[in-house]
Every structure is written in C-alpha cells, then in structure tokens.
Amino acid sequence: MVLKAFFPTCCASADSGLLVGRWVPEQSSAVVLAVVHFPFIPIQVKELLAQVHQAGHVGLAVLGTWCHRRQGAEERLGPFLEGLGAIFSHEPWLQLCRERTSGLWSCKATCQQGPARVKDQVMLVFYDQRQVLLSQLHPPAALPDRQAGDAAASAEGLAAVFDTVARSEALFRSDRFDEGPVRLSHWQSEGVEASILAELAKRASGPVCRLLACLLSLISAASACRVFKLRPLSFIWSKLAVCGQLGHRLEQLELVFSTQKAEKPAQLMRKANVLVSVLLDVALGLALLSWLHGKDRIGQLAEALVPVADHVAEALRHLLQWLMGAPAGLKMNRALDQVLGRFFLYHLHLWISYVHLLSPFIEHILWHVGLSACLGLTVALSTLSDIIALLTFHIYCFYVYGARLYCLKICGLSSLWRLFRGKKWNVLRQRVDSCSYDLDQLFIGTLLFTVLLFLLPTTALYYLVFTLLRLLVVAMQGLIHLLVDLVNSLPLYSLGLRLCRPYRLAGTLPSSQPA
Amino acid sequence: MEDEQSFSDICGGRLALQRRYYSPSCREFCLSCPRLSLRSLTAVTCTVWLAAYGLFTLCENSMILSAAIFITLLGLLGYLHFVKIDQETLLIIDSLGIQMTSSYASGKESTTFIEMGKVKDVVINEAIYMQKVIYYLCILLKDPVEPHGISQVVPVFQSAKPRLDCLIEVYRSCQEILAHQKAASASP
C-alpha cells in the first residue's frame, strides 16, 4: 500500500523540528499530531509521549523530522536530522521538508529493515485538526476491557485516524505561552480555545445537578408512597392523562439531571434534546398562562362553558327525539324505542342538572387548573384533554349502555341461532356440537330468536349512533395527545445543531480539492 | 495533466468531461451538465403568470398576482439550490478512497466519500429507464458480513447521465487505479 502521511494544516508554517504522532500499520498511514521544536532534550520528549499515552491510551511515537528552511540551508541540518533518526528509531522514518520561499514540498520515507530501503510513493494528506475535533466523528471510546496499549483495535479505516486525533487531547492542552520543557506546535499552540460561558456552565452544572437530583428523588419518593397505591386513587391516577404526562416529565428530568456523565455522544444528544424540549415546553406554558390570566379570559371561558354544555345537551336531546321517531325512514320497534329513548333522556337530564350544580365553582376550578400551565404546555394540553373527557362523560356512558345491550343481543342471537339449527356450544371442548333438544325447548328458543332478531335493528341503530359520537370525542382527545407527543419527542437540539453547526452531525469526512 | 472532451448525455444534451491526472495514483473526472436554458425558464414563468392572471380575472383579488410572483421567485431559488446540478466530480485516490462531489447552480456542494477498504469494484450496469435502456457507472461496496457479497450499489453521475462512450473512458481509468490498488494490497 502507498504510505500515507496525515499532516495538520496548522503545522505547515511551523519551524523545523520533530514529527510526533501515531503510526497505523494496518492502513500504512502515519498520523502527525504535532511538531516538537528545537531545542529539546530527548528524555523529556519521551516523557511527554508517555504522559499522553497514559491519558488517552493511544500509543504515540516520534515519526520523523520536519524541515522548514530557506534555500541553501540544507547542508547544516541534513546530517543533524539523520542523527535524530538514530536516537528515536521508528519504522518507517519520515522526512518532510518545505522550502520557505518557493513553497515546494518533499517527502521521503526510509526503512532500516525490509526489502525496500526508500519507499517510492508517499501520499501527503492535509487535515484540519480543529475541524476533526469539532465534528466529533470519533467512534465511542468505551471498551469493555481496557488494556494498556492501543485500545483502538475496533476503529477501522480512516476512523482510526480521527480516533487518534481525538484521543490525544492531552497533547493539545499546552500552548506556546506555557513554560513547559518541550515546545510544541499544533492547532491550539496559539492559545487554547475555550468559551467562558461554556466553562462557567460546566463548573456550575455539577452542584446544580446534584441539588436538582436530590429534589427530584424526593418528589419521586413522595409519589411512590403507599397512599397512592390504594384502589380508588390508583385507578383515577391511571385514567387521567395529566398524571401520565407529569410522570413522564419527572422521568425525563431525572435523566437530564442525573449526576452520571453521558458515556456516548448519542446519550449526550438525548439529554440535550430532553432539556431543550423541557425548556421550550415551560416557556410556551408560561406564555399560555400569561395570555389566559390577562384580560379576565378565564372568567369569559367559565361563562362560556355552561352554555356550551347546555347546547351539547340540547343537540343530544334532538338526536334522541329523532331516534325515537322514524330515523332516516327506518321503522323502529315502537316499544323498545320509547324505553331506550326515555332512559337516555333521563340520564341526560341528570347530567345537565349536575353541570348546573357545578356552575358557580367552575371559574375557581379553571383558575387553579390554569396554574398548572406553568409546568409546561404539555401539562396544560393534558389537562384540557382530561376536562373534555370529564365533560363528555355522559356520551361515554351512553356508548357503554348501547354497547352492552348490543353485545348481549348478539350473544343471545348467536346462541339461539345454534339452537335453531340443532347445535350447541360445547364449553368443555370449545367447539360446536350437535344436540337433540326437546320440543318445548325448541319452541321457546325459536320464539325468543325471532323476538331478538326483529329487535336487532333498533339496538343496532342506537349502538351505531353512540359509537360514532364516542369516536368523535376520542378523535378530539387523540389530536390533543398527538400534539403533546410531538412536543415531548421532537429532537429540537439535534434540529438546531443541523441548521447552525452541520459539521457536528457529519457522517462522512468533509474533504476538499487536492493540492 | 488536464484534458477536456465533449460528449452527450442520454437525452442528447451536451456534456463536457474534464480529466485531470494528478499522479499515477490520483485522478479526477469532472462532468459539466448543460446550463439552465433561458427558453425553459421563460416558458415556465409565462405559464405560471398566465395561470395567475386567469385566476385573477375570475376572483378579482390582487393578492393572487403577488402570490404568483412570490411563488415563481421561491420556486426558482429552490430549484437552483436543491435540484439543478451544474457539475459532478469523481475523484479517485489510490489506497485512500473515492470522492463524489455535486455542485449545484446556487453554489452549494455536497460530497460523498467512500473509503478504499469498502470498495469492491467499479462497473458499468445496464438499466431500463422509462422507455430507454441506459448505461450507468456504479461503485460496488463490500459486504462486511459476507466476503464475496455486495452490500450496496452506489451510482455515479446520476444527474449528468452520460452515454456509454464517456462512461468507458472513466471506467478504464478507474480500473487502472483499482488494479494497482489490488496488486499493492495483495503483496504486503
């Protein structure tokens, strides 16, 4: 394979010195990380490399020499550079050279052992260290068994190059203003890049996370206490959407403020997404709260609520009157029709009386419930969905009655149909068997069968109408839940990153034209 | 070393192929597609505006006309930025990889890079495209699980769509480099 030398663009104008980096034999590539300038003491260079090796588990070595010279100064440096090859022996030994005036490059690689003395082709690839580190393309470094030495056996191909650069962060921490024993040139040698806000946030995040984690554990311990596990409370708890949403948010906040550091970039992204969505949620909720509480809107809402409930009840009453007559030209069984219609009308009357009883308190209830919007827009929407469910409880009851009646009718019909044909359902064997009935059994069975059959259209119509109404309510609730899920699960942080810093999410290398 | 030749694409439009031989192990092929023609642009704009004017005479609402202008502008910008590809480049570097760049009319560039370790072969395939049978150059990627299998077929020059004569030129050069690469990887 052609020998590839990955050279950082920032070192192209550095003074002469030693090339320090990592040799990847599988790719036959030398990744140069920094240039060590003269004067240096070889022992100190080796100590520095050992330090970086301990910190990042990446085996660095001195790869060769770098010479940035004026024309004609070759004779003095030539034998000196070759002598360095004897001190830091490395296979193969790179010699990169650049003319200061003309900008011409020359690369040579020599092997002490092996068949070829001098490698014929060396490919020089320039890479931008800053972009590689910022794009975070490195594979996850967590391996189950960390052994001393190179732990990058899993990184293949060009990913090994990026992995090397990422693991050697310890090498890039010193800049040229530091008074260290060794003078290095790399992408941060003009001054370590950092942002004051990011550093402050990092320092502050430790204690803040600990405090919030304590609070959240207290809340979750309180909610998990035995009182809430009792029958009626736990049933109500499971039915209300608000409680589900609050529980979900609590879990998410626990994840975000956990004192464990995120191992992989994917986990960090998830945490950031959750945090951003919670913040947006709370911001929208506060906006909704300020809109609701301004200009006495809650009062207007409360005033409008009871007439709306009355209007719905009136519409339902019309519907029942229509069903009790001849709906859509169908001929119903008069007696059953009247019974069912009157039953449902009475139920409706009870419901409306109940709503009228509650009407003085509605404004207060709404005001206090509206305060829950400060916990987030999703909580407010879940509350709305719960209010809709409570207000349309009569429709749910009608649906249940209609469904039960219909179900009973169908069961009766199917069993009597079997009797009509002379068969029976064998519960033991779970199949249909033939059976000989007595004459009076057959007579009564057939009679009942005809009765049920001719009453079927009436019950079926009531069932159909109330199921459609229930579906309408469920569809409305479903829309609200969809909105809540959208706000919950939209990865806003990743979207923002894609728009503003697309290189952080890059999957492949950003390359440019060859020189 | 640079070389320019003119070919035609499957619809008969003119393409210009620029070959650059940087070294025996590094070659670049650049296909320039025909530019956006003034005739088609005028035709589309006139159609849209006539339709908007017809709607305006029906509805007497002047918002339709401004909306039509807005739509035309946005549509043109969107077309130039997302659809119209000016140039497609294939850069093949021995033992490093293959890079494909598409540059759009608005200046946007999108690149795809495939490592040499993943490339199995570069072949010319036949395909049935509407009522035509066309040839296209594609890169076959190795399957990590199965040693002789192919995991993916990546077509090259998808919007330029050159004809067989142009593809043969590119194919020959790529095969030279791939043969060189295989010989080098076979002997350590």
Automatic annotation (TrEMBL), chain A:
Signal sequence extent: none
Any idea which GO molecular function terms this record carries? Answer: glycosyltransferase activity
Tell me which Gene Ontology terms the entry assigns under biological process: GPI anchor biosynthetic process
Q: Name one GO cellular component term.
A: membrane
Q: Which Pfam families match?
A: Gpi1
Q: Does the record carry Membrane as a key word? A: yes
Keywords for the protein's UniProt record, in alphabetical order: Glycosyltransferase, Membrane, Transferase, Transmembrane, Transmembrane helix
TM regions (residue ranges): 274-292, 339-358, 365-392, 441-465, 471-495
Q: What is this protein called?
A: Phosphatidylinositol N-acetylglucosaminyltransferase subunit Q isoform X2
Q: Which organism is the protein's source?
A: Enhydra lutris kenyoni (northern sea otter)
UniProtKB/TrEMBL annotation, chain B:
Look up the record and report any one GO term of the cellular component aspect: glycosylphosphatidylinositol-N-acetylglucosaminyltransferase (GPI-GnT) complex
InterPro entries per the record?
A: PIG-H, PIGH-H_dom
The answer to keyword Glycosyltransferase applying to this record is yes
- Transmembrane stretches, start-end: 36-56, 62-82
One MF term in the entry's GO annotations: glycosyltransferase activity
Which GO BP annotation is one of this protein's? Answer: GPI anchor biosynthetic process
> What sequence ranges are listed for the domain Phosphatidylinositol N-acetylglucosaminyltransferase subunit H conserved?
89-158
The source's domain of life comes to: Eukaryota
Keyword annotations of the record = Glycosyltransferase, Membrane, Transferase, Transmembrane, Transmembrane helix
Q: Does the keyword Transferase apply?
A: yes
What pathway does the UniProt record associate with this protein?
Answer: Glycolipid biosynthesis; glycosylphosphatidylinositol-anchor biosynthesis
The record's similarity note reads: Belongs to the PIGH family.
**UniProt-recorded name of the protein:** Phosphatidylinositol N-acetylglucosaminyltransferase subunit H isoform X1
Q: Give the originating organism.
A: Enhydra lutris kenyoni
